[in-house]
């Protein structure tokens, strides 16, 4: 059972699926009605008008309506589009249990606790019939799928089948037609008919009952009340469930109905029972907290699914899909019983798939579909996929297989060997099994071929060679077999927790656990690549095996052959299948969409799907697929959108131009995509709106196009934005025009100051003075250095004292005396130290900046796009202006080509335009006062502004017409610009080269690739905590970098130190001499008794060793030996720390045990003697004379110095006379043991243990997956490849 959706809510009493949309209605005991989208898992709407629990619910098959009935005796008709109740039907006198729409007629059938069944016409809102006969609560009533029948079930222990033929005939008769009158008869019958015709239908039914509806059958057999009854969708069968815990099957004929069989197994009241819409199964639920699946033919229980705390109340089956919903005490769940994905394997020319217990082959070229052979078939519990049934265990907490019936199990996956014409089918039954079919090559096609399968146990069998296949056994071993199903090799799985295996080419397999997908080489028995990917379900390789798509439930990863992630796609709806097309685009399907994904991760929708499909092959503008029934099909698609994006991605601009000219691409989507990816100039061809066109032109840097749009818009915000863009390009003329249009006097004046155009600045001052803007005039006079003008401006503003001060400060005494102000006004004193403000001196002409004209060369196909599609680069959308020399158009190299006359800003050439429009003429009056709206604003502006008509080359009488190149640009013969400068492509930086060529963790850290280094350390030594290594990594990173000072106001020059071990490898400061030097320093501190300092040195050295880089195998062995010594010293010093703490606490037993264990650390001989002497003293002081004697004897065995030997002999002599220990400790030096660093206790030989993959410290099993306390980096018990510090270890 596959759970698709689950909710948590109050008790669910009613459920209904929408026939078309992915919706399900649930009614709650709290009185609420919830509308859910089970695909998205979201609550769409909530309807709350009922008072009390709502038990009945149903969707109309065609209208946007649904009906509900509740304990408030009301039937409500709702419109889910209007999100409100349309009307209410009243008539029942007690709780309403169920309500259902008729599929054809505007009828509703309702069952109630008032012991009646009513049929309503929801169009005229009347009650057509009241069905009486039950003498207890009517729990259920429903229409027959295609006959005029109603079945009802009641607590009076009976089922009743009602005939609606007369009611249907009456309802379809025309008013006044034949049969509308009584047609004869008299007396009481005529009087009765006359009275009935005069009463409303509802009153008529209540008083006289329903003569149009008669009881056809009364089914008795249950010993207690019946809770549910339902017709079979196609057969004359009825299923019922009752409080007697039995499910009964009934058969009908034209004249009678009888009991066929009984389903026994529930332990409490059967709440609901349904026929499966597609399979010969019966699904029931009960108050015994179980859902049971029954075989309709064999009448046996196949599976039981149990929840621990929830009773089940209601079931609903989807009318067309394989979906079932069940309501329980704490919510509902939507599930299906089998996995519907067919097993298939697509090749380049054909499709091999399984359908109806046959292996079939579909030829993609001619569409011929032929059966290959009949499958022997696995036997299991339910029709369809056993995997679907098994997976319910995690959702319900328990599953019981009842055995009994044997039904064919659907294959979960397939692997096909084209060379040997062999097929592997994988099943989930029996914990994982497979079937191998080898079809003789000489046998013809057809279902009559008999091929005996070779079976075996093991999940995920895939072909790994021409005559070899592999299967995964218990997640620990990959078993390789030949085509005779005989084992040839067993390879241990290198990925911990692997539960699935996929094909990955000859000699390789992909392994998956909950968090990782790894590629394992079966020959070398190692992991060659891995990627973090959770819950991968399917793997789809490209035809050349260079790219792979990893499909999860809601995530899709595109990776290279080395499992480098190229793109990641997240979907809110389940991903179902995927296939690569010939151009390298991945097409994939969700439940309701066909989508595409480009190699760089850009994705979009190709089409909407009515039904879920599984893509098998993409062939041009069509997709080959299999539907859920296993039927092959061909669906045409429109590949224009992703083809256009792919061509643009691969820089095939000639094909892009052709698509623009010939195709109608979706405008808004393409515009947004082009603008996002840095091609706004291309997007200009899809835009007619001037506002959008202006924005795109500004983004693309096309000043001329933006200027034309700004003239049309003529808005201040457009002029201001264009001024900023033009100023960034140094297009002074356009900046000047924009500032004139917006009348920005201050900005325009400052522009003239920057340009040194003092003549126009004086005219600006005159215009400002005429406008009465004295502040602007004073500022301009300051820019000009006109101090006399500044004085006169101050005087004209009635600031005579300030004017006199300004004049005297600049030596204009005569002008100061001429100023006459108010009497008594004080004149400020001028400061003694003054410095004259001089106007700036222009160093260049006031003209546009010269820009390099760069050819984009987009009419020729990029040479890099030939042949196979290359791996995604760091930046697919690099600026087209920086393309290589080979992409330039041929005319650029022509010696006769001439450039522009003036050094104005080079326009950004539009490669897709056939002809660039001529620049619009801008008159001198527009540049003068007219542009400002002020006749006094008369500046002598040049006429050759951008947008003005280009001057004729024949203006001086040479008679030559202007020449145009193929882009429509006017050329001049005076200046030779025949050589264009094309900047070269940016090369790969030294750090990128270091990262690419580095294979060791230390080199990757030196290159700055910290993420890659940490991943490599995790794989090699099980590292999981990198915080302690941060300082060391920073030192290694900085150790190969330097800087030299540069000239003033320039950045320093970076220096990168390369390694002598090979080209493009960084220098690593952690070398063998460094390791030796630091170890000697730690040993010296240990000898001096500075244990804290020694521990810090050894611990840091232990963290440095994984980043060490050496050149020879001898150096590798020496570094590994040092690593072992560091581990022993760190362990001993940790024991010494705890010993001191125990001594301070007065814990003699702990002190004695820690001292004894310290002596078993494998230290240097001199240091080992020191530990024995200290342990001997600690044992003597704590009166553990037996231990003291043992330590003294071990000390004598180590050949100590004479004075130390004499002390040991004295200790032995004394202790032999007092053979006793004051403390009982866990220490026996006669047995071999290692130190358990998790508990600091001995771990004797034979005890289970785990070790740290980095430092090899030993731990008991309970410390597995914890961080090692010695190195503080690695995870205890982690699977690791081993420490690698030299490239010679990889050969």
From TrEMBL:
One of its GO terms (biological process) is retrograde vesicle-mediated transport, Golgi to endoplasmic reticulum. It is found in: Cytoplasm; Golgi apparatus membrane. Residues 917-1291 form the Coatomer alpha subunit C-terminal domain. Residues 171-191 are annotated as: Disordered. Residues 668-811 form the COPA/B TPR domain. Residues 176-189 have a biased composition (Gly residues). One of its GO terms (cellular component) is COPI vesicle coat. One of its GO terms (molecular function) is structural molecule activity. Residues 410-625 form the COPA/B second beta-propeller domain. Keywords: Cytoplasm, ER-Golgi transport, Golgi apparatus, Membrane, Protein transport, Repeat, Transport, WD repeat. It comes from the Eukaryota. WD repeats lie at residues 5-46, 47-88, 89-130, 131-172, 219-260, 263-304. It is a peripheral membrane protein. This is Coatomer subunit alpha. It comes from Porphyridium purpureum (Red alga).
